[in-house]
Amino acid sequence: MVMMTKIQRSKLLVVPLLLLALLVSACGKDNNAPSSGASASPEGGATPPAASAEAASPSPAQKPVTLEFSTNASGGTLEAFKEIVAGFNDSHLGITVELADLGKDFNTLMTARMANNDMPDLFSTAGWSVRRFGEYLLPLGDRAWAGQVADSIKPVVADSGGKLLALPMDIDVSGMIYSKTILQQLGLSVPETWEQFLAACEAVKKAGYTPIAVAGKEQSDIAGMLSRVSLSLLVQSGGYKSAFEQGSFEWKEFGAVTDFVLNLKAQGYFNADYLTADKATIYSEFAKNNVAFAFQSNQTIAEIKKLNPDADVSMMRIPVGDASAKPFLISGERDSVGVWKDTKHPEQALAFIDYLAQPDNVRKIAEAYSLPAGLNGVKVDLGTLQGVFDQYQDAPVSNHFDRQYLPNGMFTTLGNVGSGLLAGTMDAAQVIAAMSEDYTRLSNAK
Questions:
Q1: Which of 203, 388, 422, 182 is nearest to 285 (CA)?
Q2: What CA–CA distance (Å, rounded) separates 355 from 319?
Q3: The pTM of the whole model exceeds 0.90
Q4: Is 183 within 8 Å of 200 (Cβ atoms)?
Q5: Dihedral angle of Cα 284, 288, 289, 293, to the nearest 10 degrees
Q6: Residue 30 has pLDDT above 70, yes or no
Q7: 16: pLDDT confidence band, cut at 50, 70 and 90?
Q8: Non-local CB neighbours of 15 within 8 Å, separated by 6+ positions
Q9: What residues contact 174, with CB distance under 8 A and at least 6 apart?
Q10: Residues 350-365: what's their mean pLDDT?
């Protein structure tokens, strides 16, 4: 006899004639054959169309499915994803999305899963939709929202053939964070060159404020600082862009970066607890108007505003080595989500991707990080940053240093060597050697 779900049995009690038709039809079937639902039969006649459609295409409630969604999101973005996942689970009976917050272990765990070809059903691509995860992702070009993907982010989430591989929730446009309150109080302009930046730091220090906040407890914050400085001194100003693109960069030239960071330390421009402070501490210091600058992204602004809605903090372009170059912004992939091409539940996974793409959900993620939406037509409240984005809409942009010019895995290297440099456990020569070795090792890794 054909196996029937609880929903079908309850309906059979209500409709005795349908029960008779199903039983008669089932008697002629192999007990091991999968049920294809009720259909026309000599004994029972034709099944009503609605019942036939339900039996032939079981609803999600009849066949429960659990989807794994792994992410590296943090802070307000993670909370927004949790809210969206809860809303999806409440509105899609039979499909449960389980959000796995991998945090700082994301890269390590995802690397292991890629090696075993055992990926989550859905996962954040963390800036690597094409270069790292491309071969594992299900193309999404046929989704109804695909045509809304913003032109500025499309090249980052689509392969060389134009195949869309991930849903971009936002566009990572950022530079550095600064306190408008402190700069205005001291009569300082927003720095455009590093010479101006150092002069501003000196003025801020003499006024009794902290020039630069570093959350050294979290290596990602130090890696972010080295990434921004490297982009500026080596790519935008240093003339090594072609060398990086061709894989011929001489790592001894990385000394420009180590010298710059060591000078900031020697001048006493970092917060006193730069090796032990976490990001929450930095948010608090900005909220109290104690800090002038940070090598951090726009999410910092949102977190500061939670502590002090009146805090006047904003985004500035990253300074350059001299006036021959222009201060610039970083633009690329931030919060994008893809579907594993070998998921056992593609229909349900795509249902979740489509749910994520709904304007209200895209807005929640974009606003959590104070970023423009990755889909056209989604209105995002950027608050005071809207004017900044408008002001800098023609500014030069670059992808993140590690994503554009380094092999996968070297963001971790930047964090390791940066921490060693600030702690004094590594000198400049050791940092340069470690960068060179990891570049070669990871470039040759499959």
A1: 182
A2: 39
A3: no
A4: yes
A5: -10
A6: no
A7: very low
A8: none
A9: 297, 298, 315, 329, 330, 371
A10: 96
